[in-house]
Amino acid sequence: MILPVNRKIAKQLKWHRTGDKIFGLYNGCFFNMGDSSIFSSPNYKFINASVGDLNEVQLTGITNDLHKNKSILKFAEPNVSDGYLFIKINEVWGTTKTKKVYKILDFIVELLKKYTVGFGADCLHCGSLEKTGFYNHSNTGVILCVQCFERTKASVNEQRYKLQLLQNNYLLGFMGSILFSIPAIIGWVLIAIFIGKIALGMVFLIAILGDIGYNKFKGKQTRLTPWIIILSNMMWILFANIAMVTILLYREGLTIGSALSGTFEFENARQILNNNTAISFILAFFVWIWLLLTFKKDNLEISLALKVA
C-alpha cells in the first residue's frame, strides 16, 4: 500500500510504482521510496538512492557527510552498500511531511553531485541510455534497457521455476499447519483438565504455530496461503472449545460419551461453548488480520511499471 505522502510526491514528480513503493528520477538521481509495515515499531519511511559502484574516496565521503547531517535533517540509520544509499525517517509522532521528504531528497542530490555520482536515465545494469524504461523488478523499481530487461526476465523465470520445484502444494501446507498447532491444543486441554480454566490465550499460539507449520512443510505460497492457514486455525479452535467443555462436564462426573453429547444438549454447556468459541474467534481475528497484512507471496517478477494515478 502506498501511503498518502508518497502518493502525493509520486504524482508531483510523475513517478512509477511497484506494489508498495514509488520510484523515479529526481534532479538526475534515481530513487525508490516506501514505508515500513504498520506493525513496525517505530514506523518509518525509507529512501533508497542508486549510487552504483563507488570508489573508496566517494564511499568514505558520502558516508561521513550522511552521519554529519543525520541529526540536522532528522533521519536515521544511513547506510551505503551494494550500489545503494539507504536512509530511514522514523515516524514516532506522526507521518513525515512532504516538505521534509523533499528537503532530504535535495540533500542527497547535492551530496551525490558533490562526489560526482549520478545516473539520470541510464540502465542500472549496463549504463546504456538507449531504449531504457521503468520496470517493477520483484517489488523494486529499476531502469533497464531492452537487452537487460530480456536477460532479467529470463533469469526471473528460471528462479520462479526452481522455486516451484521446491514448494509442495496446499494440502501439505495445510497438514503442516494442523500438525504444528497440536502442542497448543494439548496445552489448552491440559489447562482445562488440571486447572479447570478455559485458556483462551492459546488462540494466539494456535494461529502462530499454524503459520509456522505451513511454511515448514513448504506449502504453496500464493494469495490463498493465509486463508488456508486461517481455515486450519478455525478447525482447531472449534475442536479445542468442544474438547474443553466436554472435559469440564466429565470432571462433573459424567461419562465421556454423556459429556460429549451434553456439550451440545445441555443449555448451560451449549451457552459456554458458544460464548467461548465467539471470544476465541474474536481474539484470533487480530492474529488473522496480522497474517493477511504481513503475508508476502512470491514477488519474483519483472514487468513495466505503472505510473502512480
The strand order across the widest sheet is 5-6-4-3-2-1-10
CATH class of the largest domain: Alpha Beta
Mean pLDDT: 86
Strand percentage lies at 15-25%
> Can you tell me the CATH topology of the largest domain?
Yope Regulator, Chain: A
- Ends distance: 13 Å
Radius of gyration from the alpha-carbon trace, in angstroms: 26 Å
Structural class by sheet pairing and helices: alpha+beta
Unreliably modeled segments: none
Q: What is the domain tally?
A: 2
Report the order of strands and helices.
HEEEEHEEHEEHHHHHHEE
Q: Helix tally?
A: 9
Overall shape: elongated
Largest beta-sheet details: 7 strands, antiparallel
In CATH, the architecture of the largest domain is: 2-Layer Sandwich
Give a short synopsis of this structure.
The protein has 309 residues and is α+β, with helices and mostly antiparallel strands. Helices cover 55% and strands 17% of the residues. β3 (29-35) and β4 (43-50) form a beta hairpin.
Protein model, in words:
- The chain has about 300 residues and is α+β, with helices and mostly antiparallel strands.
- It folds into two domains: about 5-160 and about 300-305, Yope Regulator, Chain: A, CATH 3.30.1460; about 170-295, no CATH class.
- It is about 55% helix and about 15% strand.
- It has nine helices and ten strands.
- Helix 7 packs across helix 8, helix 7 (about 225-250) runs antiparallel to helix 9 (about 265-295) and helix 8 (about 255-265) crosses helix 9.
- The longest helix has 28 residues, at about 265-295.
